[in-house]
TrEMBL record:
Enzyme class: oxidoreductase
Pfam families found in the cross-reference section: FMN_red
Protein name in the entry: NAD(P)H-dependent FMN reductase
Protein source organism: Palleronia abyssalis
EC numbers on record: 1.-.-.-
Residues that span the membrane, as ranges: none
Domain NADPH-dependent FMN reductase-like positions: 3-145
GO cellular component: cytosol
Keyword terms: Oxidoreductase
A GO molecular function held by the record: oxidoreductase activity
Length: 176
């Protein structure tokens, strides 16, 4: 079965982005094996550190995934440091990392009206810099995301339908 790795840019228990990631993972459970990476367990990036087992396991998971799905909030007009840290670990060697050629799908959320559009563009720019293959389609941006979560489940039917369709398209590109 297709194997997807989800990366979420928020650690908080009531995270709307993680709720969206989890709800999307549940929706495609019959078609894909999905895992939410524990990027909070990664140490801060340090080029002097080699052989860290947590880092090695994460990089291996990115490398083994058929596709990587990012679901992240916007922090201060960009992506959270947590997520950038994880990306940086998996980005070496430059232009030859596990992200080279990797199919990636991006969804952003925000507590406000803009849905994380600035984080979305920053993340795609970063992925381009690693020669990842960013899925090109209408952008998945989720405004007022906290109001769309109940008991850890993302509940907005319109956004789930839209994001679910993009995810289906993305799944269709994997292996091609
Ligand atoms: C440090 C920090 C910076 C933030 N910066 C932005 C921002 O630039 N734009 C925005 O729309 N929301 C911003 N927010 C609000 C987040 O969009 C909101 O808290 C969102 O719910 C976080 O995602 P989560 O629910 O997955 O934790 C910020 C929140 C934090 C904690």
């Amino acid at each position: 079965m297709t194997n997807l790795l989800f990366l979420c840019g928020s650690l908080r228990a009531a995270s709307s982005s993680r709720a969206l990631a989890q709800t999307l993972m549940d929706r495609i459970a019959d078609r894909a094996d999905s895992e939410l990476a524990d990027i909070g367990a990664l140490p801060h990036y340090n080029a002097d550190v080699e052989g860290d087992p947590t880092v090695a396991a994460f990089v291996e998971k990115v490398g083994a995934a058929d596709g990587v799905v990012f679901v992240t909030p916007e922090y201060n007009y960009s992506i959270p440091g947590l997520l950038k840290n994880a990306i940086d670990w998996a980005s070496r060697p430059a232009f030859e990392s596990v992200f080279k050629g990797k199919r990636c799908l991006v969804a952003t959320v925000s507590g406000g009206a803009t849905g994380g559009v600035r984080a979305q563009s920053h993340l795609k720019y970063t992925l381009n810099g690693m020669l990842a293959r960013v899925h090109l389609d209408k952008e998945i941006v989720v405004p007022f995301a906290n109001a769309k979560v109940e008991d850890g489940t993302f509940t907005d039917a319109d956004i789930l339908s839209f994001a679910g369709a993009q995810l289906d398209d993305f799944l269709g590109t994997l292996g091609t």
